[in-house]
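Cont'd.
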Amino acid sequence: MLRLPPFQLEEPKSLYAALVLLAEAKGQAMIIAGGTDLLPNLKHRLFEPKLLVSLARIEGFVGIELQEDGALVIGPMTPLAQVAASELVQERAPALAQAASLVAGPQLRTQGTLGGNVMLDTRCQWYNQTYFWRQSLGYCLKKDGTECHVVKGGQKCVAAASNDTAAPLMTLQASLCFERLNEKRELPIRDLWSSDGIWNKRCDQDELLTSIRIPAQEAGHRGAYGKLRTRESIDFPLLGIAARMTLADDGTVSDAELCGVALAARPSLVRGVSEALTGTRPGTDEFTSGLESAAQLAYKQLRPVDNVPGSAWYRREMVPVLAKRTLQAAARGDGPVHPL
Amino acid sequence: MRVLQLQVNGDTLETAAPVHWTLLEVLRYRLGLVGSKQGCDKGDCGACTVLLDGKPVLSCLTLAANAVGHEVTTIEGLAPKPETTSEPALDPIQRAFDDCGALQCGFCQPGMMLSARALLNTNAHPTRKEIQQALSGNLCRCTGYTQIVQAVETAVARVSGKTEPDCAWVAELARDRAQIDSAPNEASPSSTTPGPGAPS
Amino acid sequence: MSARDQHGLAAPHGEFQIIGKPQRKIDGATKARGSALYTDDLCLPGMLHAKTLRSPHAHARILSIDTSAAQALPGVHGVITGQDMPTPYGVIPWTPDETALAVDKVRFIGDEVAAVAAVDEDTALCALDLIHVEYELLHSYQSPQDALERNEPAIHKNKRGDNVSKRVQLDFGEVDKAFETSPVVIEGDYSFHGSTHAAIEPHCALAQVDGNGLLTLWSATQITHYVHRALASVLDLAPHRIRVIQPAIGGAFGGKSDPFSLEFCVAKLAQITGRPVKMLWNREEVFYAHRGRHPMDMHYRTAADESGRIQSVDAKILIDGGSYSSFGLVTTYYSGQLLTGPYDFPTYRFDSTRVFTNKPPCGPKRGHGSVQPRFAFEVQLDELAVQLGMDPIELRRRNSIGPQTMTVNGQRITSCGFDECLEKVERASDWKSRRGKLEQGRGLGVAGSMYISGTNYAVYPNDMPQAGIQLKVDRSGVVTVFSGANDIGQGSNSMVAYVVAEELGLTLDMLRVVAADTDLCPVDLGAYSSRVTFMVGNAAIDASRKLRKLVVSSLAEHWEIEERRVRLVGGEALDLEDPTRHMTMAEAFQIAEVKHDTLGATGSYNTPTLGGDYRGGSIGASPAYSFSAHVVEVAVDEETGHLDVREVWCAHDCGKALNPTLVAGQIEGSVYMGIAEAIYENHQTNRFGLHAGPSLLDYSMATTLDTPEIKALIVESLDPEGPYGAKEAGEGPLHSAIPALSNAIFDAVGIRLRHLPFTPEVVLRALREKREAERQTASPGNNP
């Protein structure tokens, strides 16, 4: 079978021990959480780290906690299945629960973690392949090569952020806590992403994500996630859209937001959605026409390229459909939108 | 190379394997537990599914070292101990898979049955949709899943003491429906039942 | 055909005890417990692990190979290249164009170049990196059109100097005249994409040479006998020094029918190293090995009269064969020869050309060669029905050929339950009251088909039996059946057990089946062309009846009664007229053994002479044909193009269901595979000539959630020559699922999909084109 390359493995039991190991490794180590993304990538020889630092045995890394101010704090090793099934998350951040419930298949949601999904490597049809395969076409810009096969002459890798949970976390204005030995910082997830598909995060590879914080949402918060993929299980997103909506006491929309993933290296917020919908009441013609406007805004702003498998044309045509249906689901308080 | 002390199917087994070996490799090529299968190399097919503390995981994407300290259940550990010496024991899921024709080539089925067992452990009366959801990470190329889902439903029914649906139903279904449907002026039983997966 | 090959429909003792009833498989509990042993589960002392070096180029000449560094790597025990086994082979003996490893050229990305045996896989992989190959790149043919238009450089040498693998042109009757005189002609282009088997078990082989020089190969093959022959030829080793065994196999579907590189490589490496050698392909390698469904571009014309009676069919088909012949000669014939039933029409012509391209080689996938033309033709029939304003089921009924007839190309139809298939799906789907009356976006479609139950064309010419069974009796009452047939999950070992138990009055726990081992079992030609139930079932009846005769006559003599009074049933022998006289079968066998000495029997089956009296007339000629009809119900999301296949009803005429549970499983699996390949799967190369996504992630196979509700309806036409009337059930029920889906989409939303696959993108584009066309027709500006 396809084999893992040799590496050393450490399974620290404390955060401190993990931070020490990472500091000592001086960039030669990689962090492994659930392993569902990293291990296939290692089997593909996309990375050949000397050391893997496993987070599996660190105490206190699993759990979902409701804080006094109404924020949710989720441990990075909390399995996606647990996030999806959590009543706290379903109530307070429904889009996240829905996105987590649609990552891959059942086993991978048992193993895969929320932290791992946030830190997922970007994906591309020319990249997520075996060494033999990549060698046969002369490699690519993201790994071992100089040429981009998606954008002719492209100098910047356009591999796609393919993490379902990134989109809802963006709309929920989550913040991430990163730690290094003697160093700790809080980073709004909206500041995490860069447009470089090779490494699309504004953190170092040896910085450790130690918690994910979702601030309390306004009263009347609604959220939903919609996912386009070939099959109804197992697959990565070909397009994912998270919707957030706030309904005022009178039932009209007071705020709304959309974020798309599986487009480019970073998840993309759609501008102008709130303006299009604010003041309308779900179920009315005004709301419907607001949805159309929001969908058109998404269509103009979210432009998939041929990075992940499948037709970019089709993914783009599905942007307004998914945007509209996901906003509708949010307004109704249901979802996820899947299959379309 | 690392010495591993693994809890597998109730036994504590000690073995040594390179650090970069997965749980699947250690189970198959060190412990001789070859019932867990390898189909896709990397987490795409579910044939290597085992239970880790009762939950279904892919052993091809689990480092063997990470499994230390957890209870691993493979297909070899699914059947209970026989109650008599003359009758081998089977888990109700295994028995139903056999009765319902769900075992064609049998290669994906160890993983499939463990996914089904994990489902029934947390949900004793799943709906058909819940069964399909729970098995959606296990690819089968032979059966079209029909007899697999019927087998899980049969296992559920038997454990609940119901006689229907049962294995005979699987085969008679095909034959009886054909006969019923041939009868003149007989309304089709399926005509009013919508299938699952209605578009949203 | 001799008397031994026809056994009648009746149960040996009046009523069937086992046959026709749901039974467990004899290996069911073993598989349920995870204790069935597949090839990679086998491990021998001192075993080495082998890996293959593959070509990164689609078409190139090999200038040199340097293996010295690999040979020198500690832990490496053997390195081989094409020069070690230069003898060409091919599963069809007329087209031997493969070698175990590339000799002078590579013909697709993934073609095998060298192999290494080492102490473990990691070491073998390191050694592969040390092999240096110099290539001279050649023009790579990525489309069959390019391969037709251009001859240099030829992918294979042939006398014509072109890239044509095989061309078959056959004419039956006055086709042109029929088209000139028929009032209705439908004409169109259709295409079928590539798909692959993707059995969940990857190919694996293990070889060992014992102290006497006997080479034993365990392999995940569905044709043990051909692997045996090919090994003898390529290794230049006497066949009696080779034993081939098929362990439990994790699915095949035609994808394990050819002899494969890894089988030769482990054998050679075992010879060189003196140690057992195993090779397990990874999933990517299985995709390169392929042998899957041929992509076809098809042009069809159908002529009919006003009543809907078909007058003629004219087909021109271009087949993309990929890089090697494999079964391609047969594929090319099948693409035309298997279309004529289940319909009766007086004239027919087809012109099929298979060309080589620099892509993974195509071969036989479930419904070999005939799924693609069936798609085109059954969609065209739907177009004909629309043009005539006729119910498409009625159109098919009107053209149905019926039993005891002959197709236009000379195929003998014996039993035929096609009309009943149509009737069953019509009723089960509530066709009459629902078709055309469903809400917008939802539709029903129908299609029919026919398939072979084995073929009388043995791939190498010989007059020996095509199937053989040997029975051995133990004094405990156990009968061991030695069957050459390959159980690939379809349950052929169980089938022979059911037959022998029925004939000898045994219970199933008294049967042992030893199968697919060339040392122990009589020759069977393997699990392909849906031949096993028909042929091996008949051979099993033949052997059992010979043995039964010995037992019955011994008991009659023992009890001093007439033979007709002796019954063997449920593990016992008894006198029908005297209830006090009975004994266990163990005792009965012992009495027979006293009289006849050691007991045993052999049985065989061979086909009658079949087929039209013309070159190629025997290809596609089968002793019996199965028939299927499908109705598919689909809901189309007109905004997204997403297809929701709600339900599929498939009625299949399997002659007689020896075990209805297993027949239903074959029907359901076929329907699943057909619908899945129509919507989700696409085996294609990208612009580099490289497989676009050789993994079970990128090659999307339907999960439980993507599979429709499948309703299997069994039709039993009782074939006069089948075992108890049985015919095949494993391949036929795939065919018409795909055109029925296309026809259902037309019924739902009015778009006619003639080109597979039906991805949401394809559906959406067609919907938009239709809307655009409607807008233009409606717009007054278009009519100045």
